[in-house]
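User:
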Amino acid sequence: MRCSVYFPAVIAGLVGIDDVLAGNWTQLSAGPWSGREGLMVASTQGKLVLTGGGTSSGAGFLDEGWTSTDGGGWALAAKA
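Assistant: Predicted structure:
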């Protein structure tokens, strides 16, 4: 199961927190990454950065990151 991208829209300022709290969600993309839980999202330098998380089966930690400028299109980040 892939994660849908709802949460970064607030971080990117694409929707207001009041809309989210009222239950007004808009799906921006299905996300190209594999299903996961416990991931982190941050906004920095005009980009959203999604990192890590574990597999939905609890089998291990994922050491990849994804970036987006709009919450809709995502690119796999280069490993450091």
